[in-house]
Amino acid sequence: MIWDRIASRLIHAIGYDIGPRTMVVKFTDGSVKYHSPVPISIYQAIAHARFPEKTYRHYVKEHVLA
Predict the structure, then answer these.
(1) Residue range 33-51: average pLDDT?
(2) Quick check: 61 pLDDT over 80?
């Protein structure tokens, strides 16, 4: 699994497991959310976004990852 720490108020880190195409989001409150299947491009967009929370919310709404 690939992990990226995120500098954000709400998101602590995100991970990506290439095999099952699963993205894991660890929030600063300790909760964890799994999304699958997720293209790696979405994971990369969130990991490298200037505003990762906004990018995450956008993809959750647009691609129904919830």
Answers:
(1) 93
(2) no
